[in-house]
Amino acid sequence: MVQKSKPLAAAEEPERRGQPERRGQPKRRGRPRAYEPDVALGKALDLFRTQGFAATSLDDLSEATGMNRPSLYGAFGDKRELYIKSYQRYRENARASMVEIFREEMPVRQRLERIFASALNIYLSGETGPRGCFTVVTAASEAVGDPEIRAMVLDGLTELDKAFANCFRRAKENGELPASADPVVLAQIASATVHTIAIRSRARVSRKELEAIVKGAIDVMVGAGAKE
């Protein structure tokens, strides 16, 4: 049986839908965005924050980043190394989102309110629901058995304590806190409040309830009647 040839219009249809092919020239293929290291690392970070290390497989990472296993290994090393790089990226992003709040001159109550509000924005973010704090998630899982990751987590916790201590020290020098106030202890209470709202946000506690916790903690730290 003789096979009917396709009408000329049908044969030309692909060129009509897009740009005409230029014969004699090789096709140009742009590099997929998912293969850009920064983009891929961001997608890996999102996945690790949502699922944790153990529950995230290499197949999951390949699908999320659009990279096959050899490409992942070539760009980031094994899964553990990718997790570490993802955690480092998280720390950088979190630091960048809060650095100006810690540096600017403002009353201590206002500073704390802005810091906790920024933290809640981070913890409650996520396409599939709140993901909490990656540091807290890592502290409760991978830091237990991995000395290198544990050291990174401890460094993050210490960095936050010191930042809060500087806030309370300045507030004390400005007369916003009583002479008996201990900036180090107050900093530890502030950090503990951060960790509390991080855990509760991951458990889907509402923002309204979390903000009530924050308000109560600030009242304890600086006094309900502290001057604005």
Q: How is this structure best described in words?
A:
There is one protein chain. The chain has 228 residues and is mainly α. 68% of the residues lie in helices and 0% in strands. The longest helix has 27 residues, at 147-173. It is elongated, with a radius of gyration of 25 Å.
Topology:
Elements: H1 8-17, H2 37-51, H3 58-65, H4 69-76, H5 79-103, H6 108-123, H7 134-139, H8 142-145, H9 147-173, H10 183-202, H11 207-222
Structure in a nutshell:
The protein has helices at 8-17, 37-51, 58-65, 69-76, 79-103, 108-123, 134-139, 142-145, 147-173, 183-202, 207-222. It has 228 residues and is mostly helical.
Broad shape: elongated
What's the SSE pattern? HHHHHHHHHHH
How much of the sequence lies in strands comes to under 5%
Secondary structure category: mainly alpha
Percentage of residues in helical conformation:
55-70%
N-to-C span: 91 Å
Total helical segments: 11
Question: Which structural traits does this protein have?
Answer:
disordered N terminus, elongated, 11 helices, 228 residues
